[in-house]
Write a structure and sequence with these properties.
With about 350 residues, this protein is mainly α. It has helices at about 5-15, 15-35, 40-45, 50-75, 75-85, 90-115, 120-135, 145-175, 180-225, 235-250, 255-265, 270-290, 295-310, 320-350. The protein is built from 14 helices and no strands.
């Protein structure tokens, strides 16, 4: 099943609930663009391979390309997010609960951006949707365990594989260039890091863009009174819309998060920044192809930790790491609880 742009616009004009859902979903995508996407370019800014402005523009472009092209090739992450929770039953109540979840996600993400903490938007999305679904169904029947297990896999993959790949890639790069004068490699690694940052931004769009398209499709079907659509095709116009909104969000900026990830957590040289970007992009590619929704924030940050730890453990500012890990841990119960409470509040009001 698919929806053409003209059909969507006709429904938008005649369905106030769809208007609200669309605004909230696009709001979440926009917030993701300015709070999560900066992680992709943090290292190339911290090593001065690019200026913040140039890096943000590049990230906006490659986020757009990642959302668009990866969804054309493989949209399994969309399906995983769409089927992760049960918003079935009364479609009107389900739509209200979904709007509450989206509101909770925007609230959580904006607070994290304000304090400069690179919280995982993916985890906020999963937690907010799960909390709202539990409120709607009155218990854990709102969670689809067979799909939710992929979230657990993603958590392990983004944390463990990100660190190991970061450590391995920087070791390999070091071995390849060990007999070459560091001054002669400066120009090469500056260009290589820009390429790595572009790849990271592309894969961020590929992962997170698909997650939010899954939510968008869910909202559209619920607004039509269809809560149990299982097979659908992502329309081209939706890919373009989500890509553009995420790109705009990225272009707004996120210097606080760039500073926290790329400057405060660890001091990197250009070859290390390149290694971190390539390692994280590789992890995200594996996850996207296999349909596992992972945290792009987790993946990038743990790859940076792996790169720094390969030199020496003390190279990592573990105080900043502790702060980030605490935020990640709090995201699931915190955003989930907000989603749960907001769902009850919204269903009571509406």
């Amino acid at each position: 099943m698919t929806i053409s742009l003209s059909e969507f616009l006709n429904q938008l004009v005649s369905n106030p609930a769809l208007i609200i859902t669309t605004i909230l979903t696009l709001g979440v995508i926009l917030v993701n663009g300015w709070t999560d996407a900066p992680n992709a370019i943090a290292t190339c800014v911290s090593t001065r391979a690019m200026t913040p402005r140039a890096a943000i523009i590049m990230a906006a472009i490659f986020n757009f390309l990642g959302v668009f092209f990866m969804t054309l090739v493989n949209a399994t992450v969309v399906q995983t997010i769409y089927k992760m929770v049960d918003f079935g039953g009364d479609s009107q109540e389900a739509l209200v609960a979904l709007c509450a979840a989206l509101f909770a996600i925007v609230l959580w993400a904006t607070a994290a951006w304000y304090f400069g903490i690179p919280t995982s938007e993916s985890h906020a999305l999963i937690a907010g949707l799960s909390g709202a679904a539990i409120a709607l169904q009155g218990g854990l029947s709102g969670i689809n365990g067979s799909e939710w297990i992929n979230v657990v896999y993603g958590l392990a993959l983004s944390t463990v594989l990100g660190f190991l790949m970061g450590w391995s890639v920087v070791k390999i790069v070091g071995m390849i260039f060990r007999n070459i004068d560091r001054r002669k490699t400066h120009g090469f690694f500056q260009g290589a890091q820009i390429t790595g940052a572009a790849a990271m931004a592309f894969m961020h769009g590929a992962q997170d863009g698909q997650k939010f398209m899954g939510v968008f499709m869910l909202g559209m079907f619920l607004a039509q009174g269809q809560g149990n659509v299982q097979n659908f095709v992502i329309p081209i116009w939706l890919m373009i819309l989500c890509s553009v909104v995420m790109g705009i969000g990225t272009s707004i900026g996120g210097y606080k998060i760039i500073k926290a990830v790329g400057m405060d957590m660890v001091t990197l040289e250009k070859y290390q920044g390149f290694s971190a970007d390539i390692a994280a992009a590789g992890c995200l590619l594996i996850a996207s192809v296999t349909g596992i929704p992972v945290s792009t924030t987790h993946t990038k940050n743990t790859s940076i930790m792996g790169v720094a730890a390969a030199k020496r453990i003390s190279a990592v500012n573990w105080g900043i790491v502790k702060e980030m890990v605490l935020t990640w841990i709090l995201t699931f119960p915190g955003c989930g609880l907000i989603g749960y409470l907001m769902a009850h509040l919204f269903m009571w009001i509406f």
